[in-house]
Amino acid sequence: MLVSKLPQFPDFTISASLFSNIENGEDLVKDIANIPYSLIDTTLICSVEQIYSAIYRVLVEYKFNRIKTKSINSELLLCLSQNSNITQNFKKFGINANTKNLVIVSILENQINNDLNKEFNALLKGEEIELNNENLQKICDMKAIRKILTSNLMMIQILPRPLSMLFS
Amino acid sequence: MSKLITGTYSSPDIPNKTFQVNCNDAKYLTTNGKTTGSSEYVLKAGQIDRDRPSGPRRLPDGQLTYLSQLRCNLTGIQDDINEFLTERMQIAKSKKTKLTDTKEEARINDEINHLLDGGDDDTEETDTV
Amino acid sequence: MMFLNPALPGNRWALQMKEKKISIRSNKLLIKLLRTLKEAQAIITNITISKMSVELVELVNQYLTPNVPISPIAQGAEAIVFTTHVHPYLPNEITKDIDTNKKYIIKFRPPKKYRHPVIDKSLTKHRTLSEARILSKLFQIEGLKVPRLIAMDAVNGYLWMEFLGEDLPNNKGFSNLKNFLWMYSSDGRDPYDKVVKETLFKVGEQIGLLHWNDYCHGDLTSSNIVLVRDSNDIDNWIPHLIDFGLGSTSNMVEDKGVDLYVLERAIISTHSSYSDKYNEWLVKGFSSVYEKQGKNGSKKLGELLGRFEEVRLRGRKRSMLG
Amino acid sequence: MSKRDNNMQMEHTLTLNIPFATSKQADIACQVLRPDPILRPQDFQVKYTSKGNELVMEFQSIDDRVLRVGVSSVIDSVKTIIETFDELE
Amino acid sequence: MVNLNGVKPKNGRNYYIALGLEGSANKLGIGVIKQPLLDSTLTGDNSHDCHTEILANIRDTYVTPPGEGFLPRDTARHHKNWCVRLIKKALAEAKIENPSIDIDVICFTQGPGMGAPLHSVVIAARTCSLIWDVPLIGVNHCVGHIEMGREITKAVNPVVLYVSGGNTQVIAYSENRYRIFGETLDIAIGNCLDRFARTLKIPNIPFPGYNIEQMAKKAQHKDNLVLLPYTVKGMDLSMSGILAFIDGLAKDLFKKNKKNKFLFDSKTGEQLITVEDLCFALQENLFAMLVEITERAMAHVNSNQVLIVGGVGSNLRLQEMMGQMCADRANGKVHATDERFCIDNGVMIAQAGLLQYRMGDVITDLADTVVTQKFRTDEVYVSWRE
């Protein structure tokens, strides 16, 4: 689990883990409204920067009272793309019954939850692997990413240098 | 006064038309010409004309100064010429078109006004008309 | 056509309506020239923080929190530019592997008190977004080098970008094109060195790419071209174009010609002894991009260089007037 | 400019003789009026001369319309000149 | 080195007297000024401090009914018919009994402006010059504004915002020219305000912009600002689009077009915006654009001083906004003059013309007195500054 704080937002603790071979996708989808974390399908995620730049955006929006969705968790799905269509983004980045790989993110304000790792593991039936670019690139769908990125100009710059070059 | 203003007009169909000052006619004794007033459109919009020319200057004995008299005479001659030429334009136009007299007169006046504003073709202030 | 009153004074410009537009262009050129000269003086003095900056720096500090230490590096009418060593969002676990010495640029468009808040907010947002957009689009063009956008808060007027360039050896200043050329014209170095020639050719190529793709920089001076040294080859300087605050998409030859002219003037005013060769190399690099595009490219290049010459003549005539 | 700016077409003419009080005045009037160029010389021409006390203005035009406007405008100027002499000399 | 004392005053006097004639738009202004021969003007750039004394400053404005603009022909008629009377009055006020002895130079506006009105005044200027045997100087109207502004405010080297019915320019001095840094690409700001005033049919007395300013003060929904197009293009700006937009709003307001969501609540049909609000929005928008390009010019030339000249410069809201901008700059200061000097007048023409004259510039051939509608500020060689 990657635990960090964004320098500009010291009151928030960000915890993120990458899980593969998820088996309970269907249950997760059913219960999604009650899950206090963001669940991101990694099909379209090929770098850590992609996730954290979105987290940055969420916190900027949140701090200046401009979030457009119900919660900080759902807002993260929206912020993964420059596109402001909520439904479309949920479809693209949210999990579905067939989701096998996902990133789980918790954003907590003025709180510390030492049991978070336990909670993640209890919720997700799958295998936790290190959240890094290498692992993400193994499990993502490059073709699909290429497609969304060309229509999503700003995202491309967020990719680490060698990766972003793939798309130019 | 030794000499008065004279004008001579000629064109293909009128070889020689002269304009002269008639010192007994009031139109040659005013600085306020008939054909050089405010434009019709401002008057219609309710303009009160406060921009008439200054009146002629008089000597202590009540006589007009020579130059004031000259200015009055010229004002009269200017009216004569303007009226004459406007009429000529009307004749020239009516040969081509069959508009009613009043309409045609308005049209000619418009044309004159248009020309009078001519030098300022791209000055913004002229946009109202 | 409007008939002009024959007895009224002739207006010597009345029939040359184009003249106004031309003058406006030339004015812009002059403005840029003046600025280039000012810049030449400003390089020696450090950036002085005016009264405005003190207050604004405080505002930025509040926004960024003490966790993001910043130092101001430039201040214009519209934006203040800072550097920082802190990445806005990447966890340390990730950044430590990349580069511990990495710097970032924060460009801030401060609120203007004189503007009605509604107008001010709308402008800040719109302009920040539009600069980000143009950077992103340029970033995608193959071969074109511009800074990478890292983060944006359009509503508050912040852009984070990667920092490019380095300090030149022997206190020759930051590695923009201007300082680079100065470096080669001092300390007994050869101002016509092969490295200079190659670098200027590459700068020309960058501008060529920009223009070929119908973008204009709008403020192309030698300080807005940053050289990044290839880590494997110390004599390979890779030019990057920065500051697209006045950038635009444009397919007008005039805009492109002005871009080229502004850069030429910048070179002439700061490196006058060698400017002929320098500009020649720039144009060669520029042309090479167009020439690669076949017939259409050569045709467009011809038009563009023609207009460049025209703009140049206009500029010269103007500055010699009276 | 077209080739039609020969005098053949300027068949509408008007000559005005204005007798000033002195020859100096006539001469000044001439000098004041002369500098302003004619915008459409192919349609309208004017010549100012002074003969003794008299200012002689010879107008030529292609038609009465242009003549009307040009002449009246020049007369306006002459009126200003006369008033200046009258009030300020 | 600049020496303003190169040409000595007439008849061994220790002061100069200049007559200034202005008539480039709807104002006819006659001014008489006196400048002492000073040691301080022997060297250096002291042209902003000539100790000018105003002996007469007379103005008559051609006024049109509400909703109407002024036509060149009517304006020219006004100038023709008032010019001699006003000169006579100004001379009397300045106690000048013998112009041919007392006056050093006659200064007239050569442009830019409306052709016919300019021409009406130059006819009088030429005649006076010949009958009094006093030299003539043709003055650029904008330079007149700048020099008058500098003299009144003693601003040495300000960035100048010139805003009037016919002009919108940001100007800064550099190498003997007043360079235009930014300007309007279409209509002038004063013209934009005048035309909106016509749409609203508000009176032209004392002038339309003043009445818009007064109405703007009465805006009731200042927080709910109507957003208008903001059209700054680099250093330049354009205003015709804004005018068209707000004219449309005003017309919908008069027609009570409930479909316009800017103006009427789409559910209740309640009117959200008043005519006063529109005036307020127009001013806020246009002035923000002006201040922005002024600030850019200041950044370019490293100046902290602004001088606002021209008729629109008397607008207090514009002055206030400019002040707010300047307050954020080290030693920033905004200079503005009151309506006696920032609205077109003859004194300013005399001021700039006399500077020109003192530098030895005189018209020797009347052919050089031809007026011109287009006369760019940067065409004038400013010999009196360093």
From TrEMBL, chain A:
PANTHER family xrefs: CGI-121 FAMILY MEMBER (PTHR15840), EKC_KEOPS COMPLEX SUBUNIT TPRKB (PTHR15840:SF10)
Organism this protein belongs to: Henningerozyma blattae (strain ATCC 34711 / CBS 6284 / DSM 70876 / NBRC 10599 / NRRL Y-10934 / UCD 77-7) (Yeast)
Pfam families linked: CGI-121
Protein family: Belongs to the CGI121/TPRKB family.
Function: Component of the EKC/KEOPS complex that is required for the formation of a threonylcarbamoyl group on adenosine at position 37 (t(6)A37) in tRNAs that read codons beginning with adenine. The complex is probably involved in the transfer of the threonylcarbamoyl moiety of threonylcarbamoyl-AMP (TC-AMP) to the N6 group of A37. CGI121 acts as an allosteric effector that regulates the t(6)A activity of the complex. The EKC/KEOPS complex also promotes both telomere uncapping and telomere elongation. The complex is required for efficient recruitment of transcriptional coactivators.
Keyword entries, A-Z: Nucleus, tRNA processing
Official protein name in the record: EKC/KEOPS complex subunit CGI121
Main location: nucleus
Keyword hit for Nucleus: yes
GO molecular function ontology, one term from the record: tRNA binding
Gene: TBLA0C01940
Subcellular location, record wording: Nucleus
GO cellular component: cytosol; EKC/KEOPS complex; nucleus
Gene Ontology BP terms: positive regulation of transcription by RNA polymerase II; telomere maintenance via recombination; tRNA threonylcarbamoyladenosine modification
InterPro entries, A to Z: CGI121/TPRKB, CGI121/TPRKB_sf
TrEMBL record, chain B:
Subcellular location: Chromosome, Telomere; Nucleus
Function: Component of the EKC/KEOPS complex that is required for the formation of a threonylcarbamoyl group on adenosine at position 37 (t(6)A37) in tRNAs that read codons beginning with adenine. The complex is probably involved in the transfer of the threonylcarbamoyl moiety of threonylcarbamoyl-AMP (TC-AMP) to the N6 group of A37. GON7 likely plays a supporting role to the catalytic subunit KAE1 in the complex. The EKC/KEOPS complex also promotes both telomere uncapping and telomere elongation. The complex is required for efficient recruitment of transcriptional coactivators.
This protein's name: EKC/KEOPS complex subunit GON7
Lineage of source species: Eukaryota, Fungi, Dikarya, Ascomycota, Saccharomycotina
Gene giving rise to this polypeptide: TBLA0J01170
Entry keyword set: Activator, Chromosome, Nucleus, Telomere, Transcription, Transcription regulation, tRNA processing
Pfam families, A to Z: Gon7
Subunit relationships: Component of the EKC/KEOPS complex composed of at least BUD32, CGI121, GON7, KAE1 and PCC1; the whole complex dimerizes.
GO biological process: cell wall mannoprotein biosynthetic process; positive regulation of transcription by RNA polymerase II; telomere maintenance via recombination; tRNA processing
Family matches, as InterPro entries: EKC/KEOPS_Gon7
Transmembrane stretches, start-end: none
Any GO MF annotation of the entry: chromatin DNA binding
Gene Ontology CC annotations of this record: chromatin; chromosome, telomeric region; EKC/KEOPS complex; nucleus
Family: Belongs to the GON7 family.
From TrEMBL, chain C:
Gene3D superfamilies, A to Z: Phosphorylase Kinase, domain 1, Transferase(Phosphotransferase) domain 1
Keywords from the named record: Activator, ATP-binding, Chromosome, Cytoplasm, Hydrolase, Kinase, Nucleotide-binding, Nucleus, Phosphoprotein, Serine/threonine-protein kinase, Telomere, Transcription, Transcription regulation, Transferase, tRNA processing
GO cellular component: chromosome, telomeric region; cytosol; EKC/KEOPS complex; nucleus
Superkingdom of source: Eukaryota
Domain Protein kinase: 67-322
An example Gene Ontology biological process: tRNA threonylcarbamoyladenosine metabolic process
Catalytic activity: L-seryl-[protein] + ATP = O-phospho-L-seryl-[protein] + ADP + H(+); L-threonyl-[protein] + ATP = O-phospho-L-threonyl-[protein] + ADP + H(+)
Any one GO molecular function term: ATP binding
UniProt subcellular location: Chromosome, Telomere; Cytoplasm; Nucleus
EC number: 2.7.11.1
The protein's enzyme class: transferase
Pfam families listed in its UniProt record: Kdo (PF06293)
Similarity comment text for this entry: Belongs to the protein kinase superfamily. BUD32 family.
Assembly information from the UniProt record: Component of the EKC/KEOPS complex composed of at least BUD32, CGI121, GON7, KAE1 and PCC1; the whole complex dimerizes.
Name of the featured protein: EKC/KEOPS complex subunit BUD32
From TrEMBL, chain D:
Single Gene Ontology BP annotation: tRNA threonylcarbamoyladenosine metabolic process
Family stated for the protein in its record: Belongs to the CTAG/PCC1 family.
Gene Ontology CC, one term: chromatin
Species this chain originates from: Henningerozyma blattae (strain ATCC 34711 / CBS 6284 / DSM 70876 / NBRC 10599 / NRRL Y-10934 / UCD 77-7) (Yeast)
Domain of life, per lineage: Eukaryota
Protein name: Transcription factor Pcc1
Residues annotated as signal peptide: none
Lineage of producing organism: Eukaryota, Fungi, Dikarya, Ascomycota, Saccharomycotina
GO molecular function: chromatin DNA binding
InterPro entries: CTAG/Pcc1
